[in-house]
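User: Quick sanity check before I run a bigger batch. Here is a single chain. Can you write out its predicted 3D structure?
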Amino acid sequence: MLKNYLTVALRNLWKRRGFSLINILGLSVGLTACFLIFLYVRFEYSYDGFHDKANRIYRVVADIKTPTETVHANGPAWPAGRVLQREFPEIESAVRTATVSFLFRKGDIKFQEENSLLADPDFFRVFDFPLLKGDPKTCLNEPFSVVFSETAAKKYFGNTDPIGQTILLAQKAWPVKVTGIMKDLPGNSVISGTVVVSMSTETMHLNQGLEDTWQWFTYHPICYLLLKPHVNPQNLETRFPPLIAKMENEEMRKQQMASTLSLEPLKDIYLHSTRDGSKFGNARNVYLFSCIAAIILLIACINFVNLTTARSVERAREVGVRKVMGALKPQLAAQFAGESVLLCLFAFLLSLLASQLLLPEFNRLSGKTISLGIFEHPADLGILLAAAILIGLLAGIYPALVLAAFRPSAVLKGRFTTGSRGTTLRKALVLVQFSLSIGFIIASIIVYEQLNYMRNQDLGFNKEQIMVIDTEGDPHRLAFQQALNNVSGVRSTSMASNVPGTEQPVVNCQIENAKGDMQVANLDSYFADWDYVGQFGIRIVAGRSFSRDFQTDTTQAMLINESAARMFGYHSPAQAVGRRFSQFGRDGRIIGVMKDFHFRSLQQQIQPLTLRIEPQACYLVSVKVATNNLPTTMAAIEKTWKQVVPYRPLLYYFLDEYFDNQYRADERFGRLFLYFTILAICISCMGLVGLSAYSTVQRTKEVAVRKVMGASVAGIVRLLSRDFLRLVIISFAVASPVTWWIMQRWLTDFAYRISVSWIEFLVAGLLAILIAALTISGHAIRAALANPAEALRTE
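Assistant: Done. Predicted structure follows.
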């Protein structure tokens, strides 16, 4: 029996191979898209789940309260982890990490390891980052101990064994001992680094006094606690405040600052933490892609039902003959459901091939290696296979029941129909398909306009033709800047602690408010030289900028932006000019107010900002270069660097590219969304082709009679297309309000965003009607041009 079913199924699939191919392609496209999105979503949710103790690891975060605001920091003060472990027996271990930039040298080999990691001794015991060589219990115990990743070790030591060898650290050439080699840290971890240096190197030698510093600064560690089994983190949190209040020093109280500590589960950090500096993933985009996968799969299933139903007319007589010969309804239903599953299995095999071929490109589009191959996790293939079989069964139920229910007497006489309920269901399915597809079109237009808006927004400063060189605080940085002024092609230079787009320090400051009181606040702060404001084209809306004519500007002058002026209660920028400030022991006056400029991403509101001249805090050299002979200018700059700072590699980037990198994740999201929109539309069009073909076959004799009676080709095309275009218009009416609500929610992630207007919806509607018209026009025109005698000959 099964052999007979299989033989008949294969024969029918081959006989109608055109329809079979469309069916298989539609399902395989849906399965491929769904599988790739499944890999992406699973990867996003896999962050830090590979640690054996992940469910017991928590990050300590701090809320620092001031009279004006609360700063939500992603780490506590330096001594917090050590003190918490000592005071609370529920804590098994505490590990601090801090991302720093270290210069390593070995002979003529030198690299600035910008992603170096400081870590406490228990780092490799709490986290499951495999060590290839070295003892995880002791490799970070001593100062000036270092663990290299495989990749970093090869840069310095080649194929030789680095364990026990020394390498020089920083420009002071401290010798550090290699105590371990670790596997490159995985991509699905919030902890990243190419080199791990013992924390005692920093706290005991490079930056002494940190272990006793309870005052909160921008430079703070990330602290992880490993709790003992069955410890309730919420109960533990409630016992922190008395200890922290006791440990915080007089300086914190003097500045009216107090911190509150809480715990975040390690596995929640990547997608769900909103802490400053730790927003890695976007849970809303992950949810959205999950919905996209489900929608595309639903569209593919609807497409499958419509195409299979369209073929039912051709097989009606076969059903009639089978019934006359004694075939039972369950047997017929099983036959057709089996064919449906067989089609899905073919689609499954095709989707495997497509997924393997498309995975490298999908990795590139997503900006990360979500999978090395479809066979990396064999269980995934089992899930995909089960999904294909389930889809085949569910999608084949309706066509199987419709075909098995045909009456032999009516079928063999040529009078058969699937009934009005079948027609209504098929139209309803097309309505759902195009509602989803039109929703995709509207959403894609809005996503594109938002990304285009961010790219073209006036940032309030000049970022073109500016090269930024990171000196890493080298003592010869001022000499290097002065030497650059003699390089042909260099138009101007300036030095600062930050440029727009880089992470800026939040610094405690006191500024006189509108009431005349000195108000404490934590503000984003830049430190720069005289030329910074002019070089970046930052406008002064009140007062003046820094000037060499006023020597007191080096110690007693501050610029603030408009947002800071509003924060301190001034109704106009001019009111803030001349007001007092106190910061880092410097007392002076506000000499000017800068027009607000976007020194952060457009996803964030412009924050209050201060700017002071502070040469010792300026590490970045900004170079405005001419573009007419850029390669020569770049070579001259590199030559100057090697002459002044020969022991350090030149690290630079162009500001426009660096600033635009902030939107890379959103641009990748936009591209992926567009591609999946195109897939959804293509699959929907396949379904429309199926329904159009079905309707045309059903109305063949009607069309022939109309032509005999004098109907024109245009009139017949209009007749056959009218119902489908009506469905598209109804779909547009259904999709528009739902999509508007969803995209409004998506746009809330952007502090500066477009206003959604009716134009986007009109364009989407017209585009959907055009796509539908082009899709169904082929069948309609072919039917209108057919010879009516051929259709009426059977009567």
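Residues 26 and 179 are 56 Å apart (CA to CA).

User: Great, the batch can go ahead then.
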